Amino acid sequence: MLRAIEETVEYIKRKTENFKPEIGIILGTGLGGLVKEIEVEHQLMYSNIPNFPISTLEFHSGKLILGTLNGKKIIAMQGRLHYYEGYSMQQITFPVRVMKGLGIESLIVSNAAGSLNPEFKKGDLMIIEDHINLQPDNPLRGLIESELGPRFPDMSEPYKRSIISKAIEIAKTVDVKCHKGVYVAVSGPNLETKAEYKYLRLIGADAVGMSTVPEVIVANHAGLPVFAISVLTDEGFPEELKPFNLDEILEAAAKAEPKMTKILTQLISEL
């Protein structure tokens, strides 16, 4: 893995004239609008980057965007990778390793998720303060070179509390309703049954999705502070459950995305 990371890092450095990002960003489903706020200096297609997995979803563009946002040098993944696409956990999280190798000092993650908390409605934002991992594998399983991090990384603060506090204050300042809650990660790609939604709520989750947790585990393993935020695009309330509609999910994400962008653009300037 170390050789693959080094090869990929060196390729990106050559192609971007040794651009040195301070902050890494992973943009989730329907949440690529933040890219419009970036003063773009370089763009690289995943398919052209050595060792980089390719996003297989038609609504994930699969680009690395490098540039400046609110005075900070950033590298953004426009389109993430998912376990249900058939990738291993190591492949899904490989970009986090590469961004760390390029020099990022913190990681911001966004996603689209389904609400499990009746007080959190479709179109709301939820800052993730903790998570429950129900995915069937772990990106740290197997041999891990000691240079990448410890064998047993601590997860007592997977999402940096000081950054969460800043984001909450920013949300108030820009008048955006923003909850805090627990995100549960499942493998997908099917949506949950009524009984599963009920179970996930009973074990303490406020929102459910199919991403984020592997990247957060690896970021913590690599010593990177993490901030994560969900756009709640549907509601998994068993008594009111409606059939899944992808177009409605993407529409809800697009409508809520400007609110997320308001928070993240200001947050980035303060990191």
Topology:
Blueprint: H1 2-15, E1 23-27, E2 39-45, E3 63-69, E4 72-78, H2 89-102, E5 106-115, E6 125-133, H3 161-173, E7 178-185, H4 194-202, E8 207-209, H5 213-221, E9 226-235, H6 246-270
Parallel strand pairs: 1-4, 1-5, 5-9, 6-7, 7-8
Antiparallel strand pairs: 2-3, 3-4, 5-8, 6-9
Helix pairs in contact: 1-2, 2-5, 3-6
Task: Give a brief description.
By secondary structure, the protein is α/β, with parallel strands linked by helices. Helices cover 31% and strands 24% of the residues. 44% of the residues are buried.
Report on this model:
With 271 residues, the chain is α/β, with parallel strands linked by helices. It has one domain: Rossmann fold. The protein has 6 helices and 9 strands, in the order αββββαββαβαβαβα. A 5-stranded mixed barrel has the order 5-8-7-6-9. A hairpin with a 2-residue loop joins strand 3 and strand 4. The two termini are 29 Å apart. The mean pLDDT is 94. Belongs to the PNP/MTAP phosphorylase family. It comes from Pedobacter punctiformis. Pathway: Purine metabolism; purine nucleoside salvage. Homotrimer. Its EC number is 2.4.2.1.
